[in-house]
Amino acid sequence: MSDAGAIVADEVTLSSLVREAFIDPIRSVLIIDDEYPTWEQIFGAEGYDPKDTSARWAVNSKILEVIKQFRRKSPALTVDIHDGSKNDEIGSYLHQSDLLVLDYQLEKAEPHGVRAVDIIDDLLSSRHFNLVVVHTALGELTTPFNHVLMSLLCPLALDPTQVQAGFELVRQLEESEDGNENAVADIRAAVSESNYIAFRKAVANGKTARGLIGTPQMVAFKAICDNAGWDYEKKENVFLWAISGYEDRLIKANAKPREIRWNSPGEPGRPWIRSGGGFIAFADKNNTELLKTLGEALEDWKPSPSRMISSKIRSEISAQGVVAEDTALADKHAYWQYYQELRAISSDGSKTKNHRKTLIEAHAARHTERLFDMVGEEAVKFGLKLVDCDPVAKNPDAKDGFSTHYNVNAKSPEDRVKALQHYNAYISTKPVSGWHLQPGHVFKVGGDLWVCVSPACDLVPMQKPNAGMHESTKASTKPFIAVQLHNRNGLDAGEVNSNTLVFLRDMATGKINTYSVYQSSGGFGSPVWRLFLAADFGRFTVNEDKTADLRLSYVFGEEDGLHVENCESKIVGHLRYEYALNLVQKLGVEFTRIGLDFVAPG
Known about the structure:
By secondary structure, this protein is α+β, with helices and mostly antiparallel strands. The protein folds into four domains: 14-154 and 254-303, Rossmann fold (3-Layer(aba) Sandwich), CATH 3.40.50; 177-249, no CATH class; 308-407, no CATH class; 417-592, no CATH class. It contains 19 helices and 15 strands. The strands form two sheets. The protein has a seven-stranded mixed sheet, sandwiched between helices. Strands 8-9-10-13-14-15 form a six-stranded antiparallel β-barrel. Helix 1 crosses helix 14 (305-328), helix 4 packs parallel to helix 5 and helix 8 (183-190) packs antiparallel against helix 11 (219-228).
């Protein structure tokens, strides 16, 4: 047997790029199968006899076929085997493998797949991207596929009014004189688990149940509905009632919704399931070319170019990590001086633990950048191959090419505008990070948004304690300047490059909103700025939702004089440094402007 997925030398195709991004980085394989002997069984007192013809072990030649494909790769893969008998021990195995080959029938008797589903659920809950091939001896893939997928789905919010209306129709049909006294059982039987899964995919694609009712898979259900004389609205209500039984099965304690895509058995291509935690392919045990099957399923998934490039970067870090690290650390004099700065304690106590934390944070950012400089070249080469391989690059008349892998409707003006807004937010903002205020932190006070524009060196806790306010350390506060952001949704396209705008994602709705430091278009007028005082020197802890709570004070004037107001605020965004610096400069121009005596005509 040739190496799985072998291609002609130098031929670049989507298949070869998928292999390079996802298959080639695999270095270890864990097989969980109770019919495969483990090392403990081979060398232990129990022993393993390859000539044993009992039903306990798989045929020796079949086991070797599966293992040899992994050993023939260059470099050869590390292969380990677990029999799946003790689930409490499996967790220590799972983190060690890049690919899991999982037997669906780990139980000796029905119901099968219970342990396999538990293992997959635990695996996909990890922080790693996992590749799984479910290997089954059932002779068909629909049963294991449906079982695994149903275990990963969370219930939909079905309209209870429609469900109840559907139930009333079925009850009336059972009670009518010429009706069907077994209507409940017959309708539930006519709506299979596969029908439910097709419904979930339709909902994910923005469609309704009505389009499914006329498909070949729904012939039995449609016949019952037609005999009852129900119109499409009633058919849809009855269908929703029928699938509500599957929804009840999906209710799990503390289940977190997963973003899941899939291709079912019977649809064009290989069956697969994709979630945030990994990718699952399915293969019959008569099929021993598992790497080829996995590669074909990955190609059918149509991963986006961005995901493929990201996977390539991850694999290069893994492959070149030590060499890249040694290269990055080669300038020992620079790193020696950095460490002197890190451990230095000045006589006035300014270089404390807080200052060290800032130094380490800055060092980690620079070091990460240097590491990427070492591994980025291969990722760039891969990205160029990917773009050159795009059907549009080869044929301008081709339809969209790899851009369709993003599932964005290029023909929709709304989606194109949305793409531009999300791109602008992506390049200019990042998740809230750090442990103290920095230029670019966007925070909300009441209904107003503000962005911190004080220089970074003035914001380090306990550093420059007198900056902005004399002896502010006595009150454990950090003075800083912030500029107000004004909503500018619906602005003219020409203003995008005015250097005055901020594109910020709303944490509640996910919508990208546009803001400016100026209230009107054209950059006229003056930015609204204010001096704030942050409690605890501006230190904070980032919450799970990537926000941070901050206690502030500010000074405002009334007829009877100046007042200090205390308030709670929340950091809701973070501009990248160069975009924050742009706003700092805008405010600097405002502070240093020269008043001239020109008179407007008229």
